[in-house]
C-alpha cells in the first residue's frame, strides 16, 4: 500500500475546483481505495468531494496520501502528478 506526504502548492489550496479534480482522478481507479488526510491517523475517503473539501487544506498544507487495491501505484502517481501540477490551475 503506497503512502506519502505531499505539500499542497497551488495558490488556492484544495478549494472546490481542485477538490473536484482530485476526486475525478481518484475516481478513475474504481478498484483502488484512495485516502487523504492531514496525518496518517485521520485519513478520509479521497473519492468523496465533501470529505476532501472539509480538509480545508490551503497552500502549504502537508497532506498524507494512501492508496490501496488494484492499480494502487498508478493511482498514487496520478494524484501526485495532479498536486505537483497545481491542479492544472497554473498558480
Please tally the β strands and state the result: 4
Helix content range: 25-40%
CATH superfamily name? HPr-like
CATH class categorisation: Alpha Beta
Specify the CATH architecture: 2-Layer Sandwich
Order of helices and strands: EHEEHEH
Measured between the Cα atoms of the first and last residue, the distance is 31 Å
Regarding quaternary structure, what we see is: single chain
Low confidence ranges = none
What is the strand and helix layout of this fold?
Elements: E1 3-7, H1 16-27, E2 32-37, E3 44-45, H2 49-54, E4 62-69, H3 72-84
Antiparallel strand pairs: 1-4, 2-3, 2-4
Helix pairs in contact: 1-3
Task: Explain the overall architecture.
There is one protein chain. This protein is α+β, with helices and mostly antiparallel strands. The chain has one domain (3-88): HPr-like (Histidine-containing Protein, Chain: A, 2-Layer Sandwich). 34% of the residues lie in helices and 23% in strands. It is built from three helices and four strands. It has a four-stranded antiparallel β-sheet with strand order 1-4-2-3, with helices on one face. Helix 1 packs antiparallel against helix 3 (72-84). The chain starts with a strand and ends in a 7-residue tail after the last helix. The model has no long low-confidence stretch (mean pLDDT 96).
Quick recap of the structure?
One of its GO terms (cellular component) is cytoplasm. The chain has 91 residues and is α+β, with helices and mostly antiparallel strands. 34% of the residues lie in helices and 23% in strands.
